[in-house]
Amino acid sequence: MRGLRNRLNSPLPSESGGCLHEWALAEAVVSTMLAVAKEKGAKMVSEAKIKLGRLQNIDTEIFNHALRELTKGTLLEKTEIKLEMEESRFRCRACGHEWNLDPSEVGSDESEAIHFVPDLAHAFIRCPRCRSPDFEVTGGRGVWVDYIRIST
After folding, report:
1. The whole model's pTM is what?
2. Cα–Cα distance for residue pair 40/149, rounded to 1 Å
């Protein structure tokens, strides 16, 4: 953690009241982008799009701040990073109904639990048609790099 702290110009998230979850995700995204850029022999990464699953309930302000801090001094420092939310989508295994989750359907405590462990969605969400808790998440889960534009 010392090496990471020395790279940052601001305090660690736990010291400043930020959320370690967003910082950990941002670190994984930056590592992935740097690995791809290195593999492709990039001299510069001009643009990148990161998709955030709505089910992750990520604080985009903290996530974006973490990305900016973690890219300082790297070839990603001047990259235009675009964030795009993917809506949460589900399909009931009992009746086949497909639906998007309305964020107001989940309380703040439940939303917080799902934020850290997305699989907990099954404990709090039911199919709106048949009320079954047996469903699959078909969208809006996870964080991933959609694309990066590089110059060699």
Report:
1. 0.74
2. 11
Q: What is the pLDDT of residues 19-45, one digit of tens each?
A: 788 999 999 999 999 999 999 999 999
59: Cβ–Cβ under 8 A, 6 or more apart, which residues?
Answer: 19, 22
Measuring CA to CA, which residue among 48, 65, 56 is closest to residue 8?
65
What is the rounded CA–CA span in Å between residue 58 and residue 61? Answer: 9
- Extract the runs of DSSP E, i.e. beta strands, from the chain: 44-53, 80-86, 89-92, 98-100, 135-139, 143-151
- Compute CA distances 95 → 87, 99, 101, 128, 140, whole Å: 21, 12, 17, 10, 21
Look up residue 151 and give its amino acid: S
- Tell whether the torsion through CA atoms of 20, 23, 29 and 35 is positive or negative: negative
Strand pairing category for 80-86 and 44-53: parallel
- Residue 45 phi/psi, 5-degree rounding, is -115, 115
